[in-house]
Each structure stands twice: as C-alpha cells, then as structure tokens.
Design goal:
Length: about 220
C-alpha cells in the first residue's frame, strides 16, 4: 500500500511539473495602463489609447504597445498590400522594448521607446523577396519623432527610423495577416505574430498582425 501511495505521489509530481512547463512556454498578453508621461512627449501620449498591451514570450522577452487612438484609413490602389487603406508614414502607435529587439532584418534595437509608422516597402530590385508582402512598421526613437501628426516623405522616414539601428537601414517590423485580437500566434514560417484591433477614422477597427519575433528569409 505504501509503494502504491509513493508511486501515486511521484505521478502527481510529474503531472504538475509537465503542467507548469506547458504553462511556462505559452506567450502571455496583458492589458497595461497608460503610456508613461516621463517617457514621451505630451503629444505622443495624447495620441495613443489610454491602455496598452504587454506581450511576454516563452523566453521572457517582452514588448509593450500602445496603439493610436485612431488610424486614418483611405482606400487606395496598392497591389499586393495587406493594409492598402493605411497611408505611408502614418502614425500607428508607440512600443517599448525593455530588453531591446532584433528587427526583421536581424538588426539590433536598444531597449527603449519607439514610435511605429506604417510604410509600404518599395517594389524594386533592392527589396524584392525580403518579405511575402510589402507592409511594415518602421520604428523610430520617440525623442526624434515626438509629433504623431507629422507627415514624412519616404526618404525622411527611412532616415528617421535608421536612428534606431545606428546603421543606414531603418528598423523594420513586418506585418502579416491578423489573427484574433489580443492574441499571439506562431505562423508556419516561424514568425510570432501579435494581433490587435485599432479603431479607425471610418468608425470601425483595423486588425494589425505584427511580427514581434521573426526574420527575413536569407
């Protein structure tokens, strides 16, 4: 009887360990409070939602995102784009990387706060094959992009975002098709995508699928 009880206790312990391990590897999404006033300009803080998201992956890496209060949408002719209703250079939100990040090109971004602006990748010889679709968010230091209403031509935005990487290339975060809002999913290509619904000027919402971990095919 004693040996049966011991075996039962061991089996229970193994099940608990396996359960804890399974829970530990699951990405976690939490709602968080407003963008810290000490970290960004008043204009940026007023342009994002009062609540944000904290995404924690299985390895402990985290990202905190506050999306724009409203995305300005306008249908346009953009063959191949996942988000043709968004405008190039449009402010989409603010992100904080507490441990830094490796962007879609494999470039390192230091820990800190960054603005996110939508940009379609040019369909030219320098960019063909970089990603399956041309939609990206470019990350720029909040200290250099304090006015969300500011419009940028392509070259200006590229130069601004390049300040994030310290190279000649912008910090690029790929967009994919969105899944369930507020959830994280691993795609067949290995990319980890966080999806969120953002209100739009059309009175609806736009779901964005943001590749928070992944890299372009070499």
């Amino acid at each position: 009887m004693k040996s049966v009880t011991l075996r039962s206790a061991r089996l229970t312990a193994i099940i608990l360990l396996l359960t804890c391990a399974a829970l530990a590897v699951s990405p976690k999404v939490e709602h968080i409070g407003p963008l810290p006033a000490s970290a960004v300009s008043g204009g940026l803080r007023q342009s994002v939602a009062d609540k944000g998201y904290r995404v924690t992956l299985e390895d402990g890496w985290t990202a905190e995102l506050w999306f724009a209060r409203e995305l300005k949408t306008d249908k346009k002719d953009a063959p191949g784009a996942l988000y043709p209703q968004l405008s190039n250079g449009e402010f989409a939100g603010v992100v904080r990387f507490p441990q830094g990040m490796s962007d879609f090109r494999g470039q390192s971004l230091p820990a800190g706060f960054y603005t996110l602006r939508y940009q379609m990748l040019p369909q030219d010889g320098n960019h063909m094959g970089v990603a399956p679709n041309p939609d990206f968010l470019l990350a720029s230091p909040v200290t250099d992009d304090a006015r969300p209403e500011q419009a940028y031509v392509y070259k200006k935005l590229i130069a601004l975002s390049a300040k994030s990487t310290g190279t000649g290339h912008p910090a690029v975060i790929a967009l994919e098709s969105a899944g369930q809002s507020g959830a994280v999913a691993k795609e067949e290509n290995g990319n980890i995508v966080f999806s969120a619904a953002v209100p739009t000027s059309a009175g609806a919402s736009e779901k964005l699928g943001i590749v928070i971990k992944g890299a372009a095919a070499q």
